[in-house]
Design a protein that fits this description.
This protein is an alpha/beta fold. It contains 13 helices and 11 strands. The chain is globular.
């Protein structure tokens, strides 16, 4: 069964806060849901499908459905693939809608990693009991050094440079200056990035994403519901998902799960990378963007450094405008997992509602891609292709 044309993203909302010491995680989820419903022109009693991941507090979907007063649910999905979960959820919502399991699906993300310590939700928990823990934890792996391993290997294999990685941050900062809610609004240069403090060789502080509170929500509907709403229609064309593990140490660190999820999404959508007008690409670190662009087919493997250099990702300047809200590198990375913001900005672009300074002219085809987990160990990849109708 194909989901092409079987569902539409009709509501999108990004919480404006980046620090929320006065709000609970459940409250942020609910405020995001209310924003997305208002954007779509629906109310909570229209929702009959609910999707969330490990950031939802308590019993996840059960607790949040009760808290938000969702009384008409007939389908729930709490698939957890880290930061890519919410991109994957759009595909799962489209599948559920195509199968007749629901007609209005709500997807929410929220968290407070900036103002509260971890533990408010299930996301990030349970690592000590993971089957790989006894083999990997003694070596002191962290998020930063695991991504740095991939960057080091990419540099060794293909000659990628720190300056080329820095261009990804530079592009994000050029976009973030126009976003009033962006956590970092200052435009930076390549020199600023490579001269910022080293965090884990070869990644500098400005190669890393921001840490923010906040969240977002999406409304995905059936074609019949979409026709009744007075909002621009963003059609789901294709989706792909894939896990990548360490395979007992026999792993190539130079590619991501996008090499598998991307072709599935493009095949279902019936389009190719060169057709894409705008790209939302997960950006936990600059190396994350470079490797995913290669694996999605926007350039040859190993040539990502040259592809992203010289402003090629800046809207109005380069060939492939990316993360025009400033992305996770500058704008927002709520609860350390930003997949939902990738879909939200792609929807803005397709509707023509991005900031005028970064709006891509005639943007009718967009991709949102995410990676959850760690590139250096195991991660889940999700790719979503959408079209303005």
């Amino acid at each position: 069964m194909s989901i092409k044309g079987k569902a539409y993203v009709m509501g999108a909302f990004e919480h404006p806060t980046r620090e929320a010491p006065d709000k609970s995680v459940a409250q942020l989820h609910a405020e995001c849901a209310r924003g997305a419903l208002a954007d779509a022109g629906l109310n909570k009693d229209d929702i009959d499908g609910y999707f969330c991941a490990g950031d939802a507090p308590g019993f996840g979907a059960l607790s949040m459905a009760d808290y938000m007063g969702l009384r008409n649910l007939r389908h729930m999905d709490s698939t957890e693939t880290g930061g890519s979960s919410y991109i994957l959820h759009v595909g799962h919502a489209a599948e559920a809608i195509a199968a007749g399991k629901c007609s209005v699906a709500l997807i929410t993300l929220a968290g407070k990693p900036r103002t509260s310590p971890p533990g408010g939700g299930r996301g990030g928990g349970g690592f000590a009991a993971a089957p790989e823990a006894a083999f990997e934890m003694p070596y002191g792996g962290t998020t930063h050094n695991q991504y740095a391993m991939c960057a080091t290997r990419h540099m060794h294999e293909f000659g990628t440079t720190s300056e080329q990685l820095a261009w990804i941050k530079v592009a994000a900062s050029h976009h973030a200056q126009w976003n009033p809610h962006a956590f970092l609004k200052e435009v930076v240069t390549v020199d600023d990035v490579v001269n910022s403090p080293m965090i884990a060789t070869p990644l500098h502080r400005l190669d890393c994403c921001v840490v923010t509170d906040g969240g977002g929500a999406l409304i995905v509907t059936s074609p019949e519901v979409a026709k009744q709403l007075d909002r621009p229609k963003v059609k789901v064309l294709g989706a792909g998902e894939a896990p990548k593990g360490t395979y007992g140490g026999k792993v190539d660190l130079t590619f991501t799960g996008a090499a598998w999820s991307g072709p599935k999404a493009f095949a279902e959508a019936g389009v190719k990378p060169s057709d894409i007008k705008y790209a939302s690409i997960y950006d936990s670190f600059t190396i994350t963007v470079l490797m995913q662009l290669e694996d999605l087919g926007f350039c040859e493997k190993g040539r990502g450094g040259r592809f992203v250099a010289d402003g090629n990702l800046i809207s109005g300047v380069g060939k492939l405008p990316f993360n025009t809200d400033g992305g996770g590198l500058c704008n927002n990375h709520p609860t350390n997992r930003g997949g939902i913001t990738k879909v939200i900005e792609a929807v803005r672009q397709l509707r023509g509602e991005a900031h005028p300074k970064v709006q891509v002219p005639s943007c009718d085809l967009a991709i949102a891609h995410g990676t959850g987990g760690s590139l250096g160990t195991r991660h889940g990849s999700a790719t979503l292709i959408m079209e303005r109708e």
